[in-house]
Amino acid sequence: MLKEEHEVAVLGGPQSSMLPRSTAIHIQSEASVPDHIVWSLFNTLFMNWCCLGFIAFAYSVKSRDRKMVGDLTGAQAYASTAKCLNIWALILGIIMTIGFILLLVFGSVMLYHVVSQILNNQRVHL
Question: Measured in whole angstroms, how far is the alpha carbon of residue 43 from the centre of its chain?
Fold first, then answer.
């Protein structure tokens, strides 16, 4: 008998005849309530016009606190308010940023024209 045949005889046949066993674990998760804390933090740091980002951050923290104690209804209410404030902070932030850029561009152009007009008037009088 060859060495391989002896090992097969000692160890037994291929184990493919055995049914594979699997274990399934079912975890029931509670309904997740997004608290929008990252969005609120972004708005607090970068788009904090009229302090809306900071107020949204406060509501996001309240939503997370309510979620930790198991009050999903309260967490959802605070999260909804935080989302609304974040949307308004983002919209106002974008509008104000675009307005500031336009004011800067048009102000620079106007300043250039005024300075060039003054220089032309001084050349004419000399």
Answer: 10
